[in-house]
Known about the structure:
By secondary structure, the protein is of the alpha+beta class.
Amino acid sequence: MRAVIAVAVAVIAVMAVALFLYLSGPSGYAVSGEALAHPRETYLVTRVVDGDTVVLESGESVRLLGIDTPERGQECYKEATERLKELILKKDVDVERDIEDKDRYKRSLRYIFLNGTFVNELLVREGYAYLYFIEPNSRYNDALKEAAQAAKAGKTGCLWNQSA
């Protein structure tokens, strides 16, 4: 009887770990049930429009969720755009939607991952992007807030480096 109980406990433990891993994205951030309805899809990035907008091989224009970068003519525009190009232009990326699919300009709203690296968060952490939350899309807000705090505290990148 003890052997049966031990096996049952082991099976339950394995199932709990498997469920945890299933509900965690490659970056380690847990995702909501809504995310499971919108799995990540892989696309080639064919064009970088600016620091927070890209075009995929499908022709789809994608606005990176949770961030905002300087517009053309503003300080740090060129640096943010070049950094995004360096990261993902002509590369296969995984795109993940949140609650809303499109913005008012008909761009797809997505989080982007490159080999498991959360690109939206990386741009914030490196000081190329500000936080810009579009409710109800909030899956990674905590990770993005943490990245912004680290960038500001470290005076990182074009946006926060006082000597730039």
